[in-house]
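Hey all, quick one. A colleague (J.T.) asked me to put the guanosine-5'-triphosphate job into the tracker so the inputs and the structure tokens live in one place instead of scattered across chat threads. No bug as far as I know, just bookkeeping. Sequence used:
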Amino acid sequence: MDVEFLGSFTQATLPDHSYPEIAVGGRSNVGKSSFINALVSRRRIAHVSSTPGKTRTINLYLCNRRFVLADLPGYGFSRASRAEQARWTRDIESYMEHRTGLRAIIILVDGRHPPMPIDTEAIGWFSVLELPLLVVFTKMDRVKRADIGRRQADIAGMCDERHLESAMFSAKTGLGKKDVWSWIEQTLKT
Ligand SMILES: Nc1nc2c(ncn2[C@@H]2O[C@H](COP(=O)(O)OP(=O)(O)OP(=O)(O)O)[C@@H](O)[C@H]2O)c(=O)[nH]1
Ligand SMILES: [Mg+2]
């Protein structure tokens, strides 16, 4: 696995490149950076933070010189000011509107709890683009065996009627890595 960090950008400084781009979005602290590290088998190419809401920029990673993963700023950080949250919405909207190489979207949802309204809302925003969309439920290593069934029902409730593809994931155990990779491969082929 060959991965190159292309840098941290704002919407204004985001560079063009000739690769298909896959955006990774999700609530602040949901595990976006850990997801990227696990996927590309690097311990810390993406910065994992103990303080939520750290990633304020769009970070680009070139994978196997074939496609770019874009780590988007996390939304819904409750301690962020209203102005910051508004800026996030503007940035993401602008990113979605102008990013010509954008080929697919991966939305991360915290698998430890039932999905929050903001997760459903975000899926609504991203669905507008009519691009392939994968919903990934993170931190599944933290879900007790007895609760897995209930979480599966939550996931089905969120994804089935919208015909969304989903995967369960753990950056700790590697659960779901294969599923996500095959989804990415499939997406790049079409
Ligand atoms: N147990 C467990 N913890 C995880 C997993 N993924 C992420 N975490 C933890 O969750 C916290 C946030 O992870 P990050 O990867 O920084 O999350 P993020 O979405 O990039 O956060 P921001 O960039 O701040 O929005 C860290 O303490 C991680 O160690 C996972 O699969 N399992
Ligand atoms: Mg991050």
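Adding what we noticed when we looked at it: The pocket of magnesium ion (ligand 2) is lined by residues 32-33, 54-55 (CB under 6 Å). Residues 82-98 form the longest helix (17 residues).
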